[in-house]
Structure formats: C-alpha cells, structure tokens
Predict the structure.
Amino acid sequence: MKVIGIQSQIRKNNFLSVVLLIAFPLLLLAMIYTILLFGLSQNQSEATAGFLTAAPYVLAGTGLWFLIAWMFHASIVRMATGAKPLERRENKRVYNLLENLCITQGMPMPSIYLIEDDSLNAFASGLSPRFYSISLSRGIINQLDDNELEGVLAHELTHIRNRDVRVLIISIIFVGIFSFIAEMAFRSLRFASAGRSKNGKNMGAVILLAVVVSAVCYLISVLLRFGISRSREYLADAGAAELTRNPRALANALKKIRQDPAIEAVQSRDVAQLFIDNPKPSAHGFSWDNLFATHPPIEQRIEILENFIVGG
C-alpha cells in the first residue's frame, strides 16, 4: 500500500464538507415538504404555501443550531470525553514527539489533551488550525514506547492534514439535528397514542412524521458511514507510516490498542467515530454496528502496516 494523492484526498474532503453543508438542509426541507404534502395539507398548492412559510424558519433554526455547534464543538467533545489540557511540564515526552512531527510536516502544533482513562485510545478534533487538538488517554501514553506513540500521533496529524476531522465534525452536527427531530417525533407519537384524540388525520400525520424522520435519519447515518468511509483510517495509517518511516511501530501500537480501546467516559457513538479505534459493541453474531462499522477491522490495518514498504 502506497501513500499517493494526499492532496487529492484533501480536495475530496473539502468537497465532501461543502456537499454535506448543502445536502443536510436540503434533506430537511424535503422532509418538511413531504410531511406537509402527504400528512397535513389538502392539496399541493396548500402544501407549497405552507412550505414557503415554514422554510425560512427551518433554515434559520438549522443555521443557528449549526453555528452554535460549530463554535462550541471543541468544548462539547472535551465534555463528552472528559479530556483536560496536558501541560508541557506534565509530559515533555509527548510534546517533543508531536513537535518533531509538526516541524517535519510544516504544520502548526495542535493542542494536546489528556483523557484520564487506563484504556488505550486517541483522537484528533477541530475545524480550523485554531481549534486543532489531539487527545490521548492516560493508558496510551503510559503503555506505548516512543516509536509507538509517535506512530499514533502521526496518524492523528494525518487526519488533521487530510481534513478528515472537519468532515466528521460537520456530519456529527447534522446527524444530531435529525436525531433530535426523530426523538421529538416519537415523543409526540407516544403522547398522541396515549391520548383520546379523535382526529385521525392529525394522528396519521404524527405517525407519518415519525416514520419519515426515522427513515431519513437511518438513510443519512448509512450514507455518512460510507461517505466518510473506512478508507480514511487506512490513509491515516499509511500517512503515519510515511511520516515516521516506521510502519511497524504503528502496527505494534494498534496491537496494544486492540486489547483495551474502550474509553469508559465516552458514551456517544458519534464522538467514538473520532477515535483511532472504535470498538464494536457487539463482537459476536449479526449486528448493524458490525455491518456499518465506522472503522475497518484493526487486524486488517495491522496486517497492511506490517507489509508496508516505505516509499515503495
């Protein structure tokens, strides 16, 4: 496996970011129109009139939600993981390793955060150089040697360089919007079902709303898991191998990580997508999580790295 087309990957992720920014509001508007047309209105002209009235409010609400999430995403991620700033005086080793890699790539130094957990994992986050950061668990710092830890840091730097993080954060924000709508729809459905309303049409509209929202959310989740594909992990692994000139170091790090990757503080699957390894909740039998996994099998990543030829 050879690292080629890094700039192409950056352009691809920048393009995908724009597509997501356009596609999500359009999907939301399409969902609103469908509900008006088939659930709440008498005819197409009435649905269109209602849609034109509602559309500005829908777009404004979506834009406000996205703006708030964009501004505070770093704090939200840190709260979800319990990450705290890692000061240089606390661990000069991590700073020295990361600084050397950044100098090699001519990249600005990301902030470094520590997750107080003995499990082994790490992730990069941030939408712009000002907010770029790499978070490391206590376990991964303590249990990896310098070469292995350097490989992990190089992997996360490659995610930042390739703009993988930006695409993921944007997708997480918008999926959160649809998840909120779905939750509200199902709450409304339960409330209506528990009541004694005789308005069958309103009941049907609520049911349709819940079904449509659920279908849209499911579709978006599937598309995102494939659109922001497993290949990004392979590319980040390959980029780390080229950057450190030591692919076996990252392979050895992944071997240690797979023994205990679960960070107990992290309950959100959306945030877990950012990690270097996102363990599946179900290890045996059929599982939707296994079918639509956000990461490729770590065993395959290790095998590729062990056969990786630097510069070959």
Residues 1-5, 282-291 have pLDDT under 50 and may be disordered.
